[in-house]
Amino acid sequence: MSSLQDQLRGLVYSTEHGETCPTCRRPLAECECAAQAESARIAALDGIVRIRRETSGRKGKGVTTVSGVPLADTELKALAKTLKKRCGTGGAVKEGVIEIQGDHRDVLKAELESQGFQVKLAGG
Question: Boundaries of CATH 3.30.780.10 in the chain?
Answer without folding.
Answer: 47-121
